[in-house]
Amino acid sequence: MVASAPPTVEVTELLTGLNKPWDVAVAPDGTLLTGQRGGGFVARRPDGSVTRPTADLSDLYVSGETGLMGIALDPGFASNRRVFTCQGHRTDGPIDVRLLSWTVDPEWTSLTRTGVVLSGLPSTGGRHAGCRILAAPDGSLFVGTGDATIPSAPQDPHSLGGKVLHIDTDGSPAAGNPDPASPVYTLGHRNVQGLSFRPGSGQLYSVEQGTHRDDEVNALVPAGNYGWRPDLEPGRYIEAVPMTDPDRVPGARGAVWSSGTPTLATASGSFLLGPGWGDWSGALAVGTQQGEKVLLLGLTPDGLGVERQASLLEGRYGRIRTVSGQPDGTLLVTTDNGRDDVVLRLTPRP
After folding, report:
1. Cα separation, 86 vs 46, whole angstroms
2. pTM over 0.85
3. Would you say residue 58 has pLDDT above 80?
4. How many Å separate Cα 240 from the centre of its chain?
5. Which residues, 6 or more positions from 111, have their beta carbon under 8 angstroms from its beta carbon?
6. I need a surface site. Which of 89, 146, 250, 283 has the fewest CB within 10 A?
């Protein structure tokens, strides 16, 4: 793998003055929707006007890495105006992470909750929450989850933690899952933060946060086990084990890319779309928190390795949370500094 010159980009600040905007989605009319981890939605209309849609977040649980997280629009949004979100949840019962559905009014002034799509994603004190949502072309949803620092969760097929899940929009297991009765698509993950389909091949990739070493990019296959097993001692969560441990997890699938030491705290992943990116078109963009940059990874033709890399925005905007490649060839970026955060649009320039 070699370092390469990055593409030239024009940077536009679309939203400012935010606090940890975890994700961003764009509606067919061009409206941009984001949510702040501590609570609250913000929408930017195509004319530049900004609204803050009301929403019932009275049961939102905010602690550590948990709060209002992933956002995705239903593939049929143009007709049903449905939005999916992930959030920490607390009422009188146990704390968990939930996937919720909402509808948004045409003026982007309110989100109305319409149901709980999936509940029971584990949460213990807010660590390793994960919860990235990716809408598939067939209308189903992929959901990346964290292991909530529960030692047994990543390898337990009955736990929803440390997994990539595949569900229909009503929460039922999607067709083609390894176990037709289970939403689990892959297992053996620590904290899945990004999901994206590679253009051309349709191969699904995950981006995962490591311990003190080895953030990972993984090529996902149904029933794949990606080798995270922190239960070295019974009942203890021991992070000294490898991110991918083929000795203790026979058949564990190796990463397409890993950071080595130290980690960059990889927080998202999305492929660059369109010819405007030149030689970098089709590369995987990865948002990094500790790295404070957008990392570009040029994959090998078979998609199982990385042949070159470059960086964008290094040190300019602080911690990067989400990157989201758009059909118009731009890349949306959210920052994760906890004050004066922004949503950016990166436009490639010749």
Report:
1. 25
2. yes
3. yes
4. 25
5. 41, 53, 54, 55, 83, 102, 103, 104
6. 250
